[in-house]
Design goal:
Order of helices and strands: HHHHHHEEEE
CATH architecture of the largest domain: Roll
Radius of gyration: 25 Å
Largest sheet: 4 strands, antiparallel
Strand order of the largest sheet: 1-2-3-4
Oligomer: single chain
């Protein structure tokens, strides 16, 4: 009889421990969601890239800084984006890191291509599997703007000899 009471008491303690552990685990996991909140700069970069993916070039262009816009007119930006739309459609971007350097935010990300849908002999693709890129963002009028030309539009030929 005594052993049965001890077994029930021990069993109840074990159940209580398991339930307590589960509740604490849920609380911990739910509180961690707030820790991985995206920065406003990262949200801006994702907005730029999503608009490119959706072929909304006008809106994507609005994420450019004034300096970037002065180096690349919207008409040329739209033409360049349209020229690489198939590559954009077949890509997947993976966030890597973010850090503040002076007044800029540098965001590193990986570019992965779906090699089943891309012509591996296309000269525009050096490594169809993985590449990396760094976006520099600056704050202009309380909004984060892209301050360098990044994949998939690395260049903007305005009639001069630009690479």
């Amino acid at each position: 009889m005594f052993s049965e009471i001890m077994f029930i008491e021990l069993s109840n303690k074990l159940v209580f421990f398991k339930i307590s552990f589960f509740v604490i685990l849920i609380f911990f996991i739910s509180s961690c969601d707030g820790l991985v909140e995206k920065s406003p700069a990262r949200v801006a970069l994702e907005g730029y890239l999503k608009n490119l993916k959706n072929a909304d070039y006008e809106t994507a262009y609005e994420y450019y800084s004034e300096e970037n816009k002065s180096n690349c007119p919207v008409k040329q930006f739209k033409k360049n984006a349209d020229d690489v739309q198939e590559m954009i459609d077949q890509s997947r971007l993976i966030f890597k890191s973010e850090k503040k350097v002076g007044e800029k935010i540098k965001i590193n990300f990986l570019i992965q291509f779906d090699d089943t849908d891309i012509d591996l002999f296309d000269n525009a693709i050096v490594d169809p599997y993985l590449d990396s890129e760094t976006a520099n963002l600056v704050s202009e009028n309380s909004e984060w703007k892209l301050d360098n030309m990044i994949w998939p539009i690395h260049w903007c030929d305005t009639g001069e000899n630009n690479p």
